[in-house]
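Justification of computing resources. Each target in the renewal requires a structure prediction run like the one illustrated here; the chain below, 192 residues long, is used simply to show the kind of job we budget for.
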Amino acid sequence: MRRALIAVFALLALTLLYAGYAFLSLRQLEAGVKAGDAAAISDHVDFPAVRASIKEQLSAIVMSRALDEADKHRSAGARLGAGLLAAIGPALIDTAVDRFVSPAAIGALLARRAPAAGGGGSEAGGQEPKELDLRRFAHRFELLSPTRFRITHKDGVAIVFVLADWTWKVADIRIPPDILKKILRPDAGERL
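Resulting structure tokens:
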């Protein structure tokens, strides 16, 4: 009986440590983003995996749009354009994602972010700048495996964390296709 009780307490302690470590990693990532610290962010993001995920998602959207346009117009010029996009598009997407999804680019972006609350944000536009709060982001939490979990925002954006080298890191960011289409062509939001 005593051994069973010790085993239960040990399992409970390991479970709490496991969950607490994931929560701590989330808080450290959140603090790095708030502080604009690219090095702290880099410690919690697997940039090659995130880049590969974003490249794949953008390529699928761009190719889908090119094929839709070629089918819609059915002209030789539209088909040639779709063919050129199929040949050149992935290289352009790769270059753009490699440039903008990097520790240096994120650090530069965060260095130019809006001032913190109380730093004059309410005078410019009447709205307080929003602070990152991953607890609010986590509309839904899913444990995918013992080394993977996903948090999902109410708009469908999902961030997948992976336990790698004893550190929880962002390994995938899944953006719903309708949001990606608006990012690629913001003026077409009503027509999508």
